[in-house]
Amino acid sequence: MQRDFIWLWFYEIGIAADSNRTLNVDSTAMTLPMSDPTAWATAMNNLGMAPLGIAGQPILPDFDPALGMMTGIPPITPMMPGLGIVPPPIPPDMPVVKEIIHCKSCTLFPPNPNLPPPATRERPPGCKTVFVGGLPENGTEQIIVEVFEQCGEIIAIRKSKKNFCHIRFAEEYMVDKALYLSGYRIRLGSSTDKKDTGRLHVDFAQARDDLYEWECKQRMLAREERHRRRMEEERLRPPSPPPVVHYSDHECSIVAEKLKDDSKFSEAVQTLLTWIERGEVNRRSANNFYSMIQSANSHVRRLLNEKAAHEKDMEEAKEKFKQALSGILIQFEQIVAVYHSASKQKAWDHFTKAQRKNISVWCKQAEEIRNIHNDELMGIRREEEMEMSDDEIEETTETKETEESALVSQAETLKEENDSLRWQLDAYRNEVELLKQEQGKAHREDDPNKEQQLKLLQQALQGMQQHLLKVQEEYKRKEAELEKVKDDKLQVEKMLESLKEKESCASRLCTSSQDSDYPLEKTLNSSPIKSEREALLVGIISTFLHVHPFGASIEYICSYLHRLDNKICTSDVECLMSRLQHTFKQEMTGVGASLEKRWKFCGFEGLKLT
């Protein structure tokens, strides 16, 4: 008779009353023979669960009755006794097997594994609070603590009268462990009353405390990130220059000594520049600053000598590079000559097809590299020739030594060019021989030289067309500029004509004014002004009083005139002003002790009266 066995693991969890809550677990294994499957199905139906193992899926497929234990590894669940840490991630292909959980006051039965997982809302940021629904009507807060304290430390429980509550944990990962209990059926004791049973529904809850703590944490992380970034920027920022000391005689002597030292010149000249920009130069310190500027000027010759030395080193390096490049070019010419000689019929017939192909490829690569190096060398020589021509334009007279060195360098360059041309001639001869051999074997339809010539001609035509377009655009632009200049010229001519008309009108007015000046001269002869000095004084006093419309005392007027001439007398000035009654008038201002005589300018009113 075939017998089926089901292993049931029962966990008893002891919850201590103190703050340090620990889980005391006693797991016992019981082996129940399923001799009466009908009784087992009835018990499962009373609990409202579909019996496992009867629907065609064995509960323990890997059970070995000979060994009396499972051959596979039992599934790890977050509610397994003794695990107080976050459970390891479960692979998606591994089925999660939930087991019966025994507590002191209640028992939790797992949901049907064939049913879909319970739905949950979107997890709020920093969630530490869960909503628990489906509690038994007779459930107390002690039973809730007993069930959910296995998930972690509980901070607070808010229980409602409508069979649900909110539980706030100490850490966020404890919420994931509490969600594992969603879907479990809870039964208080061994009672089958509906008030003692219920189906737990655990979901994320949105709490202001969680959100506030999460925002505080994010702000703290942002502050740390900003501090870290600021420290990194400060570490990478170049150090600021040292502060420049204030000017004094002692510091001036120190800077003057540093200016004479080549190693400390840059620091000292920066200090000198800062002092001058600050405005430290005055009559007392002008000699010190002049001596420091003279010391700075003495370094010009040294810098020019250093520049000449560096230029000499650069010329020597260029010469070495040119010599090395010419040597490399000669070796490339020799390698190409080897390839061409190997391509001749005497040696070519003895190579295999693959070897011939490799030799031809190598020959093309070597020729390309040789041409590149040859162009580079020729470019260097052209630059040298251009520099030499510039030097000839700038320096008309050269010494004999430089002429001899130029002749020697030209002779060397001509010799190198002769060698390179000889190698190129040999290479061209070998290429002509190869072409003749290939033409004798097979006639080619396309000539690459013609294609290259056609390409060159097309490029030249395109360049000429572009140049023609540029010339046409420039011609149009010049025409527009010419028209603009013509318009400007017409405007200038009109302005000249108007100026001429104005000048003629002005000349007419001048003649008329001269005619009217004759009677004034007669009157001037009989005027109270006796000398040119008195006329100057009248003009200065008139200007001064015109600026002071409320008048001025004779002492104030004389103090102003004493700045111009100390010999002016107050009585003479007062006598002159009293003689010119139509130009100046005297008034009394003030009351009582503040009574004062003031002179005012009345020339404009007197002109009307006269």
Explain how this protein is built.
This protein has 16 helices and 14 strands. The chain is an alpha+beta fold and 610 residues long. Among the domains are: 101-206, Alpha-Beta Plaits (2-Layer Sandwich), CATH 3.30.70; 249-305; 320-385; 532-601, Arc Repressor Mutant, subunit A, CATH 1.10.10. It has a four-stranded antiparallel β-sheet, with no helix packed on it. A four-stranded antiparallel β-sheet has the order 8-9-7-12, covered by helices on one side. The longest helix has 78 residues, at 448-525. Mean pLDDT is 76; it is low at 1-37, 46-76, 78-86 and 517-524.
In short:
The chain is of the alpha+beta class and 610 residues long. Helix content is 57%, strand content 11%.
Count of DSSP-assigned helices: 16
Q: How many beta-strand runs?
A: 14
Radius of gyration: 56 Å
Strand content of the residues, in percent?
5-15%
In terms of structural class, how would the helical and strand content be classed? alpha+beta
CATH superfamily of the domain at 101-206: RRM (RNA recognition motif) domain
Q: Termini distance?
A: 157 Å
Q: Given the C-alpha coordinates, what overall shape results?
A: flat
Write the CATH architecture name of the domain at 101-206.
2-Layer Sandwich
- Contiguous low-pLDDT stretches (5 residues minimum) are 1-37, 46-76, 78-86, 517-524
Helix content: 55-70%
CATH class of the domain at 101-206: Alpha Beta
GO biological process, one term: ultradian rhythm
Pfam families: ENOX1, RRM_1
Coiled coil: 293-327, 411-502
Keywords: Biological rhythms, Cell membrane, Coiled coil, Copper, Electron transport, Membrane, NAD, Oxidoreductase, RNA-binding, Secreted, Transport
